[in-house]
């Protein structure tokens, strides 16, 4: 317990300075249409280039950021940075590229997530239709009036809503409609085990069928092998994301990847259902 506390205090102290010292970075991982291979969007993923330590992933520090409240300024920075980058890519010709940003439940609980989103859009000039917010089922389960209001407000503006890590929480499909979700992202654990056990493929298949019936888009996370991609294709999955296609990359690298892959015109029109 002492070690855990020391880690918390030490990480919190180091994290407190990251925004001023520009130690935070966003990496971007493509999301593709499984049928055509077209790039539909990218997900922004937070990294901390910590001096003397190296490049840290969210698992190394997100819990501390959330428990200390530092996730609020950090989350606002993520939104601003991701929207600016998406606006720059729009100007460079990838007009339909969707930028997906992860939100923490703490950002909802402590309020002002609304304002952070509006500020990022206003500051960058990014059309709301190009922004997708990824939230987890735990936010929906809070079920509070304020959360519902925020989600409805975003929907009205044209902002997209994706349910992340779907299948790991407790929410029912009924929730999805009620909260105005546009997309579900099947958690990596089901995708990883799709050939390893008998339950996972049945669960994935059911999720895909429900999503189709509800006219929700669906993305499979963590696709690592061609065999998994082929199974997903047979099941009728729309979109994929995973190391098989691309790892999360810094912006300049992602841009080179996009250029090498296909010309900007091939990015799907954002309204297209996949
Ligand atoms: P997530 O939103 O479910 O993001 C997907 C995670 O899976 C990313 O991990 C990504 O690098 C990883 N991934 C993608 N494809 C594969 C694959 O084929 N194989 C494997 N093994 N992993 C794959 P990452 O970047 O470490 O992020 C972990 C989690 O941290 C994210 O899960 C998200 O919940 C959270 N997170 C990331 N960035 C932010 C942020 O800016 N704000 C907040 N609040 N949370 C964030
Ligand atoms: Mg996500
Ligand atoms: Mg996920
Ligand atoms: Mg996750």
UniProtKB/TrEMBL annotation:
CDD domains registered for this protein in UniProt: EAL
Pfam families membership: EAL
EC number: 3.1.4.52
Segments forming domain EAL: 8-262
Coiled coil: none
Protein's name according to its UniProt entry: cyclic-guanylate-specific phosphodiesterase
Record InterPro entries: Cyclic-di-GMP_PDE-like, EAL_dom, EAL_sf
Source organism of this protein record: Thiohalocapsa marina
